[in-house]
C-alpha cells in the first residue's frame, strides 16, 4: 500500500514532461519543432541527427546570430558543438526553470546556420513570437 507521503513525492516526476526536439533532420539546418511550450520542471531533449550543430540560447533581437559562447541568460544554455558526423546522435537536455521566453539557435559556421533559420523558441509570447525571432535571426 502506498503512503500519502510517497504518493505526493511522486507527483513532480509524474507531471514533468520531456519534449523531444530533433536537430538537423534530413540534413537540414533546422530544429523540429521550432516552438516548444514547456512548464517549469519539464525537460527538453535535443538530439542531433546530422552534421555538427549546437543548441545555444541567444537574444530575441539585435545580435541574434551567432549565439555567444555560453548562451544568453538569465537561465541561458549552450550545449557546445555536438557532432553526428560519427553517427552517434548526441543529445543535450535543458531543464526549464522559468516561464519567460527563451530563444535559441545553432552557433555553427560563425552564425551561418542561425541566419539560415536554424532557430527555435521555448515559451514564445504574444509580443516575442517565434516568427519575429526568426525574422530577426535572418536579418542579423
Ligand atoms: Cu548548425
UniProtKB/TrEMBL annotation:
InterPro entries noted in UniProt: Cupredoxin, Ser-rich/MCO-related
Domain of life the protein comes from: Eukaryota
Swiss-Prot/TrEMBL keywords: Signal
The keyword Signal belongs to this UniProt entry's keyword annotation: yes
Signal sequence coordinates: 1-16
Protein name: Cupredoxin
Annotated organism of origin: Mycena albidolilacea
Amino acid at each position: 500500500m502506498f503512503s500519502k507521503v510517497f504518493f505526493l513525492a511522486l507527483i513532480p516526476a509524474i507531471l514533468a514532461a520531456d519534449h523531444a526536439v530533433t536537430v538537423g533532420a534530413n540534413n537540414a539546418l533546422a530544429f523540429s519543432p521550432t516552438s516548444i511550450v514547456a512548464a517549469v520542471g519539464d525537460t527538453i531533449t535535443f538530439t542531433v541527427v546530422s552534421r555538427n550543430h549546437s543548441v545555444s540560447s541567444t537574444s530575441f533581437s539585435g545580435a541574434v546570430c551567432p549565439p555567444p559562447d555560453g548562451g544568453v541568460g538569465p537561465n541561458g544554455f549552450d550545449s557546445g558543438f555536438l557532432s553526428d558526423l560519427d553517427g552517434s546522435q548526441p543529445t543535450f537536455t535543458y531543464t526549464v526553470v522559468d516561464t519567460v521566453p527563451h530563444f535559441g539557435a545553432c552557433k555553427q559556421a560563425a552564425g551561418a546556420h542561425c541566419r539560415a533559420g536554424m532557430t527555435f523558441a521555448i515559451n514564445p509570447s504574444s509580443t516575442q513570437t517565434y516568427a519575429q525571432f526568426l525574422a530577426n535571426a535572418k536579418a542579423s
